[in-house]
Amino acid sequence: MKLIVNGEEVDLPAVWWNSEQKMVQLIDQTKLPFQIAIHSCSTYHHTVNAIKSMKIRGAPSIGATAAYGLAQAINEFWDEPEYLTKVSSAYDQLLLSRPTAVDLKRGLDHVKKSWAVSPDEAIVQAQKFAHNISMQGKKIGEVGKSLIRENMNILTHCHTGALALVDHGSAIAPLIASWEDGVRFHVYVDETRPRMQGRLTSWELTQYGIDHTVICDSASGHLMSSGKVDLIILGADRVTKNGDIANKIGTHNLAVIANHYSIPFYSAFPDTTFDINTLTGTEITIEERNTQEIYEIRGLSKTTRTQISVSVYQENTHCYNPAFDVTPAELLSGYITPHGILSKEDLGRVYSN
Ligand code: MRU
């Protein structure tokens, strides 16, 4: 993605391996949209923490980061006598860092194949994995743009742009591809409490000049009932064999209301998000995050122009913070994949090959 860093235009992915400094680097998403900052992870342990703290987030980007993290551990421990024990432990820590996205295990297993080959090969494989994800984003854009027509109002939830998919994005990719073709439409961006990934969506759409309006999550039903939403496109963190999707908390509410008003509802994702080994959404582990994310909000101080966190509840208020929910397959109109727009019946056929 093209970014202005220190006054210069640079083309950066969400996460990459810096071969000169031998470290994983990523765009720190916790600083956006107020500041573009590069975060460096010099050990695999730092990379685990970057995933846990959501400096990098979005299922496919998490997968790519985990792949780099394991490659990094292979490099760190290669010459040590307890090499296998140490890389196995790194694998487990990375696997547990965010439990819902299957992309994470995909990335780890891809690199694991090279852990007896060489440290350099592990890096090459992590780079291939990351590159493949971003190329799939490009394909998703080409495939999904057929759904978008002039003057449509499209609603999206959470954030599915380049930052979430190494590059190009998943659900956002069709919007960009269509906009670049000259089609003009408007996007409603769910704010997506509590982590406010809508800020990232708004920031990315702004880079392309795409017309959009941010709404509180709770406003979406009202918009749908007033005929102001023609299409919903969002991402997925894990898609099970039967077509159920785990996605950012609030997706299920949207799907139920969209279904009530017969509004087309699509999920876009790369191959790494499809999980043929999990039969239905009830088997997915839903990550529960720290409740501090609910009672503290990060923003820009109007006086100092620095980023601060403020409490919006008393500290001991009981909160509950599931990060994802599961939307059953029957509520989806289809799946936007690099292989075309698929029905739930198509999924098993395409992904079992
Ligand atoms: O918790 P996050 O921010 O890592 O959640 C992931 C998401 O951004 C969404 O759920 C998204 O739809 C899938 S990732 C492209």
Task: Provide a concise account of the structure shown.
The protein contains eleven helices and 18 strands. With 353 residues, it is an alpha/beta fold. It folds into two domains: 2-137, Up-down Bundle (Four Helix Bundle (Hemerythrin (Met), subunit A)); 148-351, Translation initiation factor eif-2b, domain 2 (Rossmann fold, 3-Layer(aba) Sandwich).
**CATH homologous superfamily caption of the largest domain:** Translation initiation factor eif-2b, domain 2
Order of helix and strand elements from N to C terminus: EEEEEHHHHHEHEHEHEEEHEEHEEEEEH
**Strand line-up of the largest beta sheet:** 8-7-6-9-12-17-18
Distance between the termini: 32 Å
| Whole-number tally of structural domains | 2
For the record, the CATH class of the largest domain is Alpha Beta
CATH topology of the largest domain: Rossmann fold
Uncertain residue segments:
none
- What would the average pLDDT be, to the nearest integer? 96
**How many individual helices?**
11
Summarize this structure as a short list of keywords or feature phrases.
353 residues; 7-stranded mixed β-sheet; binds 5-S-methyl-1-O-phosphono-5-thio-D-ribulose; 18 strands; 4-stranded mixed β-sheet; Rossmann fold; 20% strand; alpha/beta; 2 domains; Four Helix Bundle (Hemerythrin (Met), subunit A); single chain
What can you see in these coordinates?
- With about 350 residues, the chain is of the alpha/beta class.
- It has 11 helices and 18 strands.
- It folds into 2 domains: about 1-135, Four Helix Bundle (Hemerythrin (Met), subunit A) (Up-down Bundle); about 150-350, Translation initiation factor eif-2b, domain 2 (Rossmann fold, 3-Layer(aba) Sandwich).
- Helix content is about 35%, strand content about 20%.
- It has a 7-stranded mixed beta sheet with strand order 8-7-6-9-12-17-18, sandwiched between helices. Strands 13-10-11-16 form a 4-stranded mixed beta sheet, covered by helices on one side. It has a 3-stranded antiparallel beta sheet with strand order 3-4-5.
- A hairpin with a 4-residue loop joins β10 and β11.
- α5 (about 120-145) crosses α6.
- The mean pLDDT is about 95.
- The structure holds 5-S-methyl-1-O-phosphono-5-thio-D-ribulose (MRU).
- 5-S-methyl-1-O-phosphono-5-thio-D-ribulose (MRU) binds near residues 165, 170, 234, 237 and 248.
